[in-house]
């Protein structure tokens, strides 16, 4: 039996797990709130693909559409990309335990700015995810967050590194430098003031 099998099942968790999501949508449980969103933009999908292709698969598994077990936060997020050591993790199951994750990647959409920079940043820090990479095609920047600290809604990352698209971003936790020159941007989207 894994730690995921022993997790507490609250009413909202049960409701979320029984939810039938329409085709073309995805749903996440974020601090007790069920959030449903439409499928991603082509710019988004191409960025995820370009990140994934730069991570060496002989050492790392890069998973898409993988639910994460952060039920201490009443959360089951589904990041755009989950990176973990190739030898880590269970052989099967819907939820991946947070303690196995090396890095999470979220690509910002015009509707996810506050969620990616706000609540998910706090949830991932509370779950002690070592590195959280926000790729932002609205502002043409990457934000690498490391050194998670604190608990609950006060949780955050102590280190933040911002790189503009076109710059190389060191990812020492993966032993690579991420080339961002081919990351696209979202046209006609109003700039924001995050992080």
From TrEMBL:
<feature type="domain" description="Putative restriction endonuclease">
    <location>
        <begin position="15"/>
        <end position="179"/>
    </location>
</feature>
<dbReference type="Pfam" id="PF05685">
    <property type="entry name" value="Uma2"/>
</dbReference>
<dbReference type="InterPro" id="IPR008538">
    <property type="entry name" value="Uma2"/>
</dbReference>
<dbReference type="InterPro" id="IPR011335">
    <property type="entry name" value="Restrct_endonuc-II-like"/>
</dbReference>
<dbReference type="InterPro" id="IPR012296">
    <property type="entry name" value="Nuclease_put_TT1808"/>
</dbReference>
<protein>
    <recommendedName>
        <fullName>Putative restriction endonuclease domain-containing protein</fullName>
    </recommendedName>
</protein>
